[in-house]
Amino acid sequence: MKKLLALFSVVLALLALVTYAVAEETSLWPAYDGESGRWGYIREDGVWGIAPQYAQAQRFVNGYAIVKVDGAEGIIDETGRYVIPPEYAIWEGTIGVDGREGNGVFVMERDGRCGWFDTQSGFISGLMWQYVESWDDSPYVLAGINRDLSTFVHRATGERLLPWQDMFSYGFREGVAVVSLGDEETVLVALDGSVTRLPEGIDAPYGEVADGMLLVTDENGLYGYVGLDGQIAIKPQYTEASDFNSGYAVVNDGLLIDREGHVIAEGVLSVCGPWADGGVAVELPGWCWAALNADGTERFRIPVEAYPYAKGVLTRPPLAEGGPWWVGYWYGGVGIDFGLMTAEGEWLVDADDNDACLCLDNEGFSGDPMGWQGTGYGGGYVDAYGNEVFPAQWYYAEHFDGALARVWFDEDWTAAGYINRDGEMVYQWTEVQE
Predict the structure, then answer these.
(1) Distance in angstroms (rounded) separating the CA atoms of residues 5 and 207
(2) What CA–CA distance (Å, rounded) separates 373 from 343?
(3) Residues 6 or more apart in contact with residue 286 via CB below 8 angstroms
(4) Sheet of 213-217, strands arranged across
(5) β-bridge partners, 178
């Protein structure tokens, strides 16, 4: 328990990222043409907006999409014009937890050299680096001339934030990047390029800010926390500790502490996420989880014996004001099954109900104004309150992306189509596998 940071804690930390910009709503959707065996893009009415001509076609992000022709990728705009010719290997730099909305950086590679295309500004960097990494929604990517010299580079201008140096970082979180320098010194870098050194004798072995705090160790190997200003917020004193999450962290043998280091509860395994009225959801021994008030008193607890393969619990605030809370069971490597619950702990949609399971998988929370979520494995739609919008009738249902949503008809993932917000099928196909 040296660091209680399971994958589901990472997921919640990622969900808390500050978004650099919201992706523009698309007006074209990738679709397959059975006659030509090629991909193109349909409009909202199901008519081709860009004729089928690609071996593969990805979704549009801020007006640009990655397409594949003759074994190589390029980038087109919504007129079908190439802004980057199909001569590269191209991928979205960051998919993120949402799944539909990455950070808008397309990383390009050819002959061992990398660059990027920024969909928000239209900036093309050129293949100037050995590698480019982009994990977040900040204005910067991490680019390396080689494996020994790298720095943060502005995604829309190509300007360096810091001198080239031997450095390693997981990128910006909450406006701060934790950077390990080649001399084994760790510093905090702000978005304006200012550098703050950690206090004497303090190290940050895990390298990421979480919930406004950085988990650190002292010379004796004891854990404590540093704030975003680089100053000690909770002095090192714990033999075991986790990242902060929703204002709380677990230290030593199950002690739940707040941001001032006050112990508010005991016997806690991990923090699952926020709960109503400033409370917190926590995982407890004996296969159960509980919602606690801000003072640590227990509001309710839910057993998880019915979910023997679950490896963790996640909680998310309502998508609509006054709506129910989202509770997910993470099974490790196979997605997260979400249900909906009242603030008092009553299930509205049970997370184990496969006919109305709200699966995170590769799509996550769509942020759609209507709050519609693909139920996955049940193939229908519910709204932000758990009310059925369209009954389960497809093999799998993706989230709405603007006016349309893609649904799948078979477990081979070859038959699919798009429905509109009235539930009408506007276009469908069966892909021929080569």
Answers:
(1) 13
(2) 20
(3) none
(4) 209-210, 213-217, 223-227, 232-238
(5) 188
> Binning pLDDT at 50, 70 and 90, where does residue 197 land?
very high
Choose among 21, 16, 80, 85: nearest CA to 244. 16
What pLDDT score does 306 carry?
A: 53
For residue 177, give both structure tokens: 């990047």
292-303, pLDDT tens digit by residue?
A: 999 999 999 998
Q: Which residue would you say has higher pLDDT here, 363 or 384?
A: 384
Phi and psi, residue 46, nearest 5°? 90, 0
CA 238 to the chain's CA centroid: 30
Q: Which helix (H) or strand (E) holds 292?
A: strand 288-292
- Going across the sheet that includes 186-190, the strands are 167-173, 176-181, 186-190, 195-197
Please tell me the distance from the alpha carbon of residue 63 to that of residue 122, in angstroms, as a whole number: 10
Structure tokens at 379: 């193939």
Amino acid identity at 350:
D
Mean pLDDT of 325-338: 75
Q: Could you tell me if 162 and 193 are in contact, meaning their C-beta atoms sit under 8 angstroms apart?
A: yes
- Within its chain, how far is the Cα of 424 from the centroid? 30
- pLDDT tens, position by position, 153-189: 999 999 999 999 999 998 998 999 999 998 778 999 9
| Whole-angstrom Cα Rg for the chain | 23
Parallel, antiparallel or unpaired: strands 381-382 and 373-374: antiparallel
Q: Give me the residue label for tokens 């010299």.
A: 149
Structure tokens, 259:
């941001």
**Residue 300 near residue 280, CB atoms below 8 Å:** no
DSSP string, 168-215: EEEEEETTEEEEEETTS-EEEEETTS-EEEPPTT-B-SS--EETTEEE
